[in-house]
User: Fold this.
Amino acid sequence: MLIDGFNSLSEDERKKFALAHGFKSFSQSGQEEFAFANASSLRTFLDIGSMSAFSASNSYALESLGWKGLAVDFDIREVTAWPENRKTPVLLADATKVDWKTVLPKYGLGPVIGYLSLDIYGDELQVLRDLHAAGVSFRCATVEHDSLGIKFELRDAIREFMLAQGYTLAVADVLNPGDIIRGVEGQPYEDWWTR
Assistant:
């Protein structure tokens, strides 16, 4: 269930919400707060395109609250720091080539996961299709589309797919705060979903 008014919270209000619920967010645009508010009682996550163990992480605060999950990234430089700094296991892999039906049970994740964070620079739709084909669904998801106000094809295709699977577009075109990718401040880069 989407918390009433979450979409309209300012950055300061989101930070107050997070602190009131016992954690400091590390995510770029409040993704962890959204997951915390919408994953229902399922305290599990799948962080695909996880990158850094801490900086701009969409799962670190959730892990610190006891959530269980799996991180997946193809960049060995990012993955190397995970085992010594995080409890969450990390898989070094190209997410478009993962056999989700086999991998998720190995890490204690069932077919319904609380939160999906998906940020892999252009292959999001393929991974969403693969997860769906493996019988995996989510209570909520933050899915990057990187339209940045100019490329809407991928964003529109992802939206069409997610809506067809019964998801609700809870927050459309989340704006890039610019602290990670300079020069694109205020441009839409991600959609947030519930089910």
Remarks:
- The chain has one domain: 28-194.
- Residues 1-8 have pLDDT under 50 and may be disordered.
- The radius of gyration is 15 Å.
- The domain at 28-194 is CATH 3.40.50.150 (Rossmann fold).
